[in-house]
Amino acid sequence: MKPRQRSQLIAGFLIIFSVFILIALFLQTAQMIGKSYSGHFLPLSVQEKEISANLRGHVFMLADEIGERNIWLPQKLNAAAVYIEQVWQEQSFAVQRQEYAARGVESANLIIEIPGIAMPDQIIVVGAHYDTVLGSPGANDNGSGVASLLELSRLLAGMKPARTIRFVAFTNEEPPFFLRLDMGSRVYASRSRSRNENIVGMLSLETMGYYSEAPNSQEYPFPFSFFYPHTANFIGFVGNIRSRHLVRLSLAAFRNTTKFPSEGTAAPGWLTGIGWSDHWSFWREGYRAIMVTDTAFFRYDPYHTRKDTPEKIGYDRLARVTKGLAEVVIELANTEKLQ
User: Fold this and answer.
1) Which CATH fold would you assign to the domain 23-334?
2) Angle at which helices 145-156 and 46-60 cross, to 10°
């Protein structure tokens, strides 16, 4: 056998071996607790109807009345921040602002919290970014995540959790800040680490509002298509290997309380899409964090375009997901052993 042929054979063997290792890793880490709901979408409860209406109002305000919001349109970015702040004040929260300059533009992360009673030093962070990519009104990315964040704080206001629950609206998640030091969530997570804050779990609400029952409406990067359904009717819980316990706890709490399709994975953070939101910033600081998502452009064609508009959001389905996430946050805030 010629040296070149031998090298090609070895390279081919290594590729096949790597694929088998990757598949074995998925089989070990992607196993989740409980079973996804597979029935018809049930009528909304009275509470869920209220949530749906509120979600619609938030998304239309952010993506229609305000519209594109980023550092190139600083007045719009600030208008979104002011709106979020006003909603939280109406919910009787005191809003903190973490201000910093990004490319010369004053920007702000917005923070509220519900103090813990038994373990106040342990913090659950629930966050969503409110900026948009250049040229998009951002109804789904990420008006849907912000709307869900605002409804979660309303639903949980007044509770007395064991752990502290902190809600954060992050600025500057989209390019040119994405996965960089001046990304809003990175600024926030870095400050949390410098203060030695004990964040025991973080949920990033990212692009959550589009669902379809059409066959083959869901796509995936390799190798996820071997393991997950091809109908885009589910909400996903996504984390890296280190955050696998948080993924499992969150998915189990959702499945135990909510009749809505759900999937979860804990996979290497370098795989395509696994770290593509604000949870990445918390990984960089050593915190366990996961993303809750409809998988964005793997099912949603208007992603990052001018067509990402409010009428494309499934508000009733997002309402059920949001109500289920309230149960997830309650479980994470009160369970005896989180890690």
Assistant:
1) Aminopeptidase (3.40.630)
2) 130
